[in-house]
Amino acid sequence: MDKDGNFQISNFKNYFGEYYFRKIGPKKIEYNICWQINQNPHPNIVKFYGINSQRLDMEILDTPFDIANETDAIKLIENMVCARNYLLDNGIVYIDWKLDNIGWSTKDQVFKLFDFDLAGLFNPVTNQWVDEPEKLFAYKSAVECNIFDPIGIDSFSFNKMVDNLLVQY
Asked: Quick one: which of 88, 101, 110, 125 is 20 to 30 A from 65 by CA?
């Protein structure tokens, strides 16, 4: 991102010879989550090439993308269910479920989730917050519906995304 807040594609290549996207200045919770994901990558989550407290280097995904038909919509939902299950199994609550945070990997032929700046950490056994995220739009919407627990908040946001996608088809 440049000084005016516009996203720029890096002219740097990773060790695979691929261009990458660099996000500068991740918050501590985002850094911790991305580091944790990088230890055990998932095929439906963006690949990280470099992670430190100053930057996140990750694969470039196609965004926006076209959902041309019901088959594409179902593939996106299936891919995101896999990503969500992985995250919840690892104590990560994504919360910010929306198409703007999903990209298409031409190389892998799958949809992938990215942008973990509004995610949080929870204890999968007790369903209690370990590191609660900022209470922004998706979080507030769930709380307004009397949903307060991490998995409930994530489910609320995920289901709204799926409902909006399915209404189109």
From this structure: 88
